[in-house]
Amino acid sequence: MTARTTHLDAGVRSALQAVSAAAKRGFDDPGLAELVQIRASQINHCAFCLDMHLAIARKHGVSERQLDLLSAWEEAEEVFDGRERAALALTEAVTVLTEGFVPDEVYEEAARHFDGARLAHLLALITAINSWNRLMVGRRIPPGSTEW
């Protein structure tokens, strides 16, 4: 597959990079941040982002077992703790939005595991990766590409 276009306005790129970086800093859990970004990227079929975030997750010590079972996290209760499961459920709810909103029970479960600031940063992180996914998939940026 070749990219449809590699043109991306520098201001857009910088703004999204800044949002992503701020969200990760405020969330303050690098491994879980990568799991969230990988899960959204799986749902959105973004090979570029999957390739990037899988490598980063490994650098942050995320286990191969978690990476292997991430797409079936709901069935892998012994692999993901309650905090991780709440973040992944929120990721799916924000990414898919099939009901037009995030269900109260999903949000409330996440709020039980994350204080207000971390929850806000988690929502920003989910929003940022969804934006990146759509930019990369829409332009068909292949995995490993250095021109995007």
What does this entry look like structurally?
It is a single chain. This protein has one domain: Up-down Bundle (AhpD-like). The chain is 68% helix and 0% strand. It contains seven helices and no strands. The longest helix is centred in the last third of the chain and has 24 residues, at 116-139. The protein is globular and about 40 Å long. The protein starts with 9 loop residues before the first helix and ends in a 9-residue tail after the last helix.
| Helix and strand sequence | HHHHHHH
Note the overall shape: globular
By DSSP, the count of extended strands is 0
User: In which range does the helix fraction lie?
Assistant: 55-70%
Our count of helices gives 7
Q: And the CATH topology?
A: AhpD-like
Low-confidence stretches: none
> Looking at the chains present, what oligomeric state does this protein adopt?
single chain
- Whole-number total of structural domains: 1
User: CATH homologous superfamily name?
Assistant: AhpD-like
Which terms summarize this structure?
about 150 residues; mainly alpha; AhpD-like; 7 helices; AhpD_core; Carboxymuconolactone decarboxylase family protein; CMD-like
Quickly describe the structure.
By secondary structure, the chain is mainly α.
